[in-house]
Amino acid sequence: MGWLFANAMVWYEKTPKSEFKAWQWTYYALFILLDVLWNWIYATVLFLQLPKHFTLSERLRDILRYDTGWRSDLAYWMCKHFIEPYDSGHCGLGYKKKEDGKSD
Question: pLDDT tens digits, residue range 8-27?
Answer without folding.
Answer: 767 677 778 778 788 888 88
